[in-house]
Amino acid sequence: MITFDLCCHREHRFEGWFRNREDFEDQLAGGLLQCPLCGSTRITRKPSAVAVHVSRRTGPPQPLPDRAGDRPGNVGEGEAEGKAVRAESFLRALARFVEDGFEDVGTRFADEARKIHQGEAEARNIRGTTTGAEEEALREEGVAFLKIPVPKFDA
Ligand SMILES: [Zn+2]
After folding, report:
1. In what side-by-side order are the strands of the sheet with 13-18?
2. Tens digits of per-residue pLDDT, 10-58?
3. Which of 8, 67, 73, 127 has the most Cβ atoms closer than 10 angstroms to its Cβ?
4. Distance between CA atoms of 144 and 8, rounded to whole angstroms?
């Protein structure tokens, strides 16, 4: 089973469970997917989280901006709105950082991360997609990786 983050045209978000990607695409094409909140069948898939692996040998290509006083822990109460804005700009910075500094290996992520971990491939920073089973296998093998959300930006 795989899960996809879905969203209807009214921006209701929900999770769908499918046997596989084809099952999802069949149901989507057949209009069988429905928003549990409003019943809309205009469903789109949200971009899923991207997996990243940072090679210990090369380290991150450049440090993330880390200005003092700009951390969530320092935000006082009553500043929730400012905090949300900061969180969004942080996500944007993070997404740009990963896009610029990490080689996109797509669905080969688990294989590549494993090879780098075992010293069989060039040590570098990579990003890509994983399945739940691949993530489980990587964890069992002690291959460090992170999943980060991919924010959807207005063009
Ligand atoms: Zn809806």
Report:
1. 13-18, 2-8, 43-45
2. 999 998 888 998 999 999 999 999 999 999 999 998 876 677 777 765 5
3. 127
4. 34
Q: How far is the CA of 86 from the centre of ligand 1 (A)?
A: 28
Count other C-beta atoms under 10 Å from residue 35's C-beta.
19
Instruction: Report residue 146: phi and psi, to 5°.
Output: -125, 150
Q: In the chain, count of helices (H) and strands (E)?
A: 4, 7
Report CA(93)–ligand 1 centroid distance (Å).
Answer: 30
What spacing in Å lies between the alpha carbon of 42 and ligand 1's midpoint? 9
Higher pLDDT, 145 or 41: 41
Angle value at C-alpha 56, between 147 and 112, nearest 5 degrees: 60
Q: What pTM was estimated for this model as a whole?
A: 0.46
Long-range contact pairs involving 29-33 (C-beta distance under 8 Å, separation at least 24): 33/6
Q: How far is the CA of 64 from the centre of ligand 1 (A)?
A: 36
